[in-house]
Design goal:
The protein is of the alpha/beta class. The protein is built from 9 helices and 8 strands. The chain has one domain: Vaccinia Virus protein VP39 (Rossmann fold). Helix 1 packs parallel to helix 5 and helix 6 packs across helix 8. InterPro entries: Arsenite_MeTrfase-like, Methyltranfer_dom, SAM-dependent_MTases_sf.
Length: 273
């Protein structure tokens, strides 16, 4: 990893370690271009009151996201879900409730302080179908083809190697598995320099991909059925967006070329032996 990338990752780690400690001491934490307490585009206000009330106060206070991925992930009973950059655990705990006792919710985070906070929140919530893992989202410590749904909340923009994140997400998903994340996305017209003028990297702004870059990254990793839908503005030319994609099921992958071949044959354009 380049020195600049290493420095950026450490800056992100320190910022979120401090956020976790602030919550532990009774404060709140939030990602965003403005100070924590004044930016309504980030944090726990993006969840419904019924969701917030059902969780430990510390999990709600530690919410750093720009959306509510569990509301759009369409989680089902018995599924295995992974939250990339799980922070204080709010989305893991909400996911655990949705997948039920026969399902399992995993949280992955690189920050010791956030992991400790998430474990405490899970214990307070009485959640028994959750597991928190230490690691980076560029090298997910889970076997291939084991996860039904990957979610994330305003974290992929913080990665220093987004291509690796997309590739690793694709690897751990089962065939037919789904990606459902909230993230900050930039207008295609904004250069990286212009994005950096609107907020810093650790504040979820400077590292955001454009709509076209996000789509290309997912396509390169192998995803299909990609949808990127902006939900609200977080800075000039920058949006919180819902990102959905699918890892094609094996049967679909096998059938797709066959359908093209049949169409070609029907039109007289296919080869014959």
């Amino acid at each position: 990893m380049h020195e600049q990338s290493t420095d950026l990752r450490e800056t992100v780690r320190r910022r979120y370690a401090a956020a976790a400690l602030k919550v532990t001491e009774g404060g709140t934490a939030c990602c965003g271009p403005q100070p924590v307490e004044v930016d309504e585009n980030f944090g726990s206000t993006l969840y419904g009151a019924d969701e917030r009330d059902a969780l430990p106060a510390e999990a709600v206070a530690a919410s750093l996201g720009c959306g509510n991925p569990t509301a759009v992930a369409e989680l089902r009973e018995g599924e295995r879900v992974l939250d990339l950059g799980s922070g204080g655990g709010i989305d893991v705990l909400l996911s655990a409730r949705r997948v039920g006792p026969t399902g399992r919710a995993y949280g992955l985070d690189m920050t010791e302080e956030m992991l400790a906070l998430a474990l405490a929140n899970a214990a307070q919530a009485g959640a028994t179908n959750v597991e928190f893992l230490k690691g980076t989202i560029e090298a997910i410590p889970l076997p291939a083809n084991t996860i039904d749904v990957v979610i994330s909340n305003c974290v992929i923009n913080l990665s220093v190697d987004k291509a690796a994140v997309f590739a690793e997400t694709f690897r751990v998903l089962k065939p037919g598995g789904r990606l459902g994340v909230s993230d900050v996305v930039a207008d295609d017209s904004l250069t990286p320099e212009q994005r950096a003028e609107r907020g810093d990297y650790a504040g979820c702004i400077a590292g955001a991909l454009s709509f076209a870059e996000y789509r290309q990254g997912l396509e390169t990793a192998g995803f299909t059925d990609i949808e990127i839908t902006p939900t609200h503005r977080v800075a000039d030319g920058m949006h919180s967006a819902i990102v959905r994609a699918v890892k094609q099921a094996m049967a679909d992958a096998i059938d797709a070329p066959r359908t093209v071949t049949e169409a070609e044959a029907a039109s007289g354009c296919g080869c014959s032996g």
